[in-house]
Structure of ErfK/YbiS/YcfS/YnhG family protein:
Amino acid sequence: MNVRLIHLPHRLDTTRIGEGASGPLVAELQHILAIRGHYNGEIHGRFDAETRAALARFQEEQGLPVTGELTPLTFCRLQAAEKISVDPAPQPPARGKSSLSRPHILITKAKRQLTLFESNTPFRQWPVAIGKPHTPTPVGNFAIAAKIMNPGGVLGTRWMGLNHDSYGIHGTNAPWLIGQMVSNGCIRMHNPHAEELFALIFVGTPVYIRD
């Protein structure tokens, strides 16, 4: 499994532009599109029809909604990313006795809190770190799609990937930031807490993220 880490040069709320816009960000967009092979025009910093068509070609190539406008998601895809390859942990033939029979996870962003439920009963509760204001943790209903042991680095000792883009629940190498809005959208936990959660859930466990 590949995990993409990006370092954004601009705030996402400033990257929504369309035809008629001009400025350094448009010139930067044209330069990136030219490197990607989608734009052959002059780097003049004006969002014209040629720039719009090049951006639409990039969006189609990436499987994004083809709007011809620079959206935050398109901007993220345009950025160079550091890729970390991690191998999924071997799956046991059956759930271990340590896992719960009907677990689900509730993450409350306002409280920076993750609660693990067994059926409708709270079973464990831990503090978490969430996304920064300009790279927020997504709100919605998801599920655990992958479990990886010891991914290392910023992912700590456990990775529990969601079935949504590259977001996941994971450990950390910066435990002093737990409780804050510091990530690119993922949910960070203290490593011992992530390890305990990892052992109690399975692929397919529902994850509900609420404000």
Summary: Helices lie at 24-35, 49-62, 72-78, 191-200.
